[in-house]
Amino acid sequence: MRLRIAGAQCPLCLIEGIELDKSQVPVNGTECAFGQWYYGDGQQLRKMPGFQELEAAHDALHTTYRQIFVLLFGKTEKTPSFFSRLFGTSANDSEENKEKALEKYKVLERQSSVIRNHLIQLENMIDVMGEEQLSRYISEH
Description:
141 residues, mainly alpha, 6 helices
């Protein structure tokens, strides 16, 4: 399963240089659909075992996403220096940043798996609960 943050731009597409709307890149955890659910309706489940761990995993994922974004776009607004234009170092820096971003993407995939596993465990827990037990967790909200 590929990482897909609902409403988000594909991080691998960013790395590969496909033109995307940078304003749609969810560099903050509250900007993606999962973050909106987690900090919104999902808070009804905050007393459930394992729910709090989702926040740290989700924050880590967005930190990595931000690092990829900075590697790819952080210096795009600066005018290259005379020496970098003369010797072409900005192109090398760009290639080096792309390689770093690809490494970060591997981290992002692992982080996505951690979140997915937490969600599966949470879902399994909810599935085995009776309606009464689940409503106790929700009513504590």
